[in-house]
Amino acid sequence: MGKIHAAITAVNGYVPPDILTNEDLEAMVDTNDEWIMSRTGIKERRILRGEGLATSDMAVPAVEGLLKKRGISAEEIDLIIFCTVTPDMIFPATANILADKIGAKNAWGFDLQAACSGFLYGLTTGAQFIEAGKHKKVLIVGGDKMSAIVDYTDRSTCILFGDGCGAVLLEPNYEGQGVLDSILKSDGSGRNYLDMKAGGSLKPASHETVDAKLHYISQEGQSVFKFAVTNMADVAAEIMNKNDLKGDDVAWLVPHQANKRIINATASRMGVGSEKVMVNIQKYGNTTNATIPLCLWDWEDQLKKDDILILAAFGGGFTWGSVYLKWAY
To answer: Beta strand pairing status for 79-83 and 138-145?
Structure first.
């Protein structure tokens, strides 16, 4: 028996039906379609509307669809890692709420918060439980209801984000497919460039914090872009160099969908042509933890066994990283 790798054996996603277009935003803030498209590549994004609906309500259909594809029950799941910056509540963990909603009675779980890099952090963490032989079926969920923390009067941020959820199932693989390597990094000195200033123990919710709009995303766009375009490209190139991979070896680059210019810079640094880059930012926007699994979901029928995939992301914190995996089915 060969070395145990954690392979993705199923993937599924969910996006809400309601669409917020650039034209809709033109009626809300001082912006226009040409400006948004030229700087971000985003045409529209999905928004979760409805009373009492939270991030877990997108995760339920995403995961139930995944379980149906794989032909297993929720009771077979050992562990749920829910990667999100918009949990249903600060506690209990949304992973626990999801487990209850889908009937995963034998799973333990926790939430993982690493901003837009969260799904890669979660994928790498979950893989280690598989590689250690501790678990057989680990569910990695990336989901965010970004509309809950977006100020729709702030034209610098409201154009960027959408809502959605994606999930993958990790299982043991002995044939060389699965997560083969990862490089994860963080730098807390970047914390002030992209954050939500209130709601934690530093600035608990109060009339003052609400009135000052401190419970929304705050971003210094130029600083974040500068760090992201360099570090996401560098870490993707680094994992390729570490594993002696060339651009021709890579079947697909699966990048975090934050900005089309950052995606292009990453592909160029890797020597990967645009035809091998998964891009769906134009229809979903930046769904934070959901972007990478939603790409895998959208491209699933084009993936072939043994395809080499490079996953790359950059997020607030700052956090960034890259994962090298070989597709298993």
So the answer is: parallel
DSSP codes joined into one string, 194-221: EEE-SSSSSS---HHHHHTTTTSEEE-H
CATH number given to 5-176 = 3.40.47.10
141-182 pLDDT, tens digit per residue, is 999 999 999 999 999 999 999 999 999 999 999 999 999 999
Alpha-carbon distance values, 55 to 11, 163, 188, 273 (Å): 18, 8, 26, 34
| Residues β-bridged to residue 162 | none
CA–CA gap between residue 8 and residue 175 (Å, rounded): 13
> How far apart, in whole angstroms, are the C-alpha atoms of residue 150 and residue 231?
25
Give yes or no for a contact between 93 and 110, defined as CB atoms under 8 angstroms apart. yes
Indicate the domain borders of the chain: 5-176, 180-326
Instruction: Report which secondary-structure segment, H or E, holds 180.
Output: strand 178-186
Q: Which CATH class is domain 180-326?
A: alpha beta
Give residue-wise pLDDT tens across range 28-44.
999 999 999 999 999 99
Contact 181, 17 (CB under 8 A): no
Strand partners, 254: 311
Query: Mind listing the pLDDT tens digit for each residue in 38-80?
Result: 999 999 999 999 999 999 999 999 999 999 999 999 999 999 9
Q: What is the CA radius of gyration of the chain?
A: 19
Q: Is 246 exposed, middle or buried (0-12, 13-18, 19+ CB in 10 A)?
A: exposed
Separation CA 28–CA 154 (nearest Å): 10
Q: Among all residues, which ones are annotated catalytic?
A: 116, 256, 286
Strand order in the sheet with 319-326: 178-186, 319-326, 308-315, 252-255
Give the per-residue pLDDT at 1: 65
Same-fold call for 5-176 versus 180-326:
yes
User: Measured between alpha carbons, how far is 35 from 45 in angstroms, rounded to an integer?
Assistant: 16
